[in-house]
Design goal:
The protein is of the alpha/beta class. It is about 40% helix and about 20% strand. The chain has a single domain, classed as Rossmann fold (3-Layer(aba) Sandwich). Helix 1 packs across helix 4. It is globular, with a radius of gyration of 18 Å. The two termini are about 25 Å apart. The relative contact order is 0.16.
Amino acid sequence: MSTPADYANELCAAHAFSMQAPVFDKLYAGNTIVQYKRQRVRAHLEQLLSPGSHILELNAGTGDDAIYLAQQGHYVHATDISAGMQEQLVQKVKQYDVHAFVSNELCSYTALSTLKNRGPYDCIFSNFAGLNCTGDLDSVLSSFYKLLRPGGIVVLVMLPKFCLWEALLVFKGKFKTATRRFFSAGGRSAKIDGAAFTCWYYSPRYIKRQVKQQYNLLALEGLCTFVPPSYIEHFAERYPRLFAFLCKLENRYKKSWPWKNIGDYYIISFLRK
C-alpha cells in the first residue's frame, strides 16, 4: 500500500512536470533520439495489441502516446496525477478530434483503487519511467490485476539500476551522473526546473519476481543501450552515420543478454494469466 511519503513524492514529481508541460512537446519534437525511443516503444506495444484495444495509460503526460494510439484505432483512458499534463492532453484531444477514442482522469498510479473508469482493460501501459517515481512499485504492480481482463497485457518502460552509457560518463568527469544509479535502493534525488523529487531504479529481475505468480513474461528489450540517451544532445545530428550504425546494433541485440538489461531504459511486457 502506498505510504503518505510515497504519495507526497509523486506530487512533487507531478509539480515539477506540470511546470514544464507547455514546453515538453517542443523540446521532444526536436530531439531525434526521443523520437527514436517513442518509435521503439510503440513498435513493441503494437506487436502485442489487438485491433480496437482498450488501454489504460498511466502517467500519460501531455498525451503524445494517447493521441498516437487513438489514431491507430485504439481506445485510451489516459491518467496522470499532474493537472498541467492533463490540461495539455485535453487540448490535444480537441486538436486531433479523437474524443471518441481518448478519455482522461486525474489519478495517481499509486491509488488505482480509486480509479473511476475501471475497465477491464486489454492493456495497461506506462512510458518513459513514470513508475520510477514510486518507491512502492510492488503495490502498484499488484493493483493491475483487477483492472485487466484475462489475457490482458502490461507494457512498462523503466529505468534500470545500471546504464552503460551513464557509467561511461565517468571518463568525461561527470561523476554525479555516472554514479547516480549506484547504491540507489533508497532512491536518488532528481530535479526538474528546480523542483526536487526522488527517483528509484528497478531491475528487470525485480519486476519479473513481483509479477511471476499472476503473469507470464512476454518480452524484455533494452532501450538506448547502444544508442545514447536523449540527454546527450545533438548526437544524432553530429554523427548521423554512427547514429544509424548504433540503431542497427541495438535492433540486433536489444533482446540479448547483457544488452537488454543495461540500457538507459528497458521495455518489459507481461501477460495476465
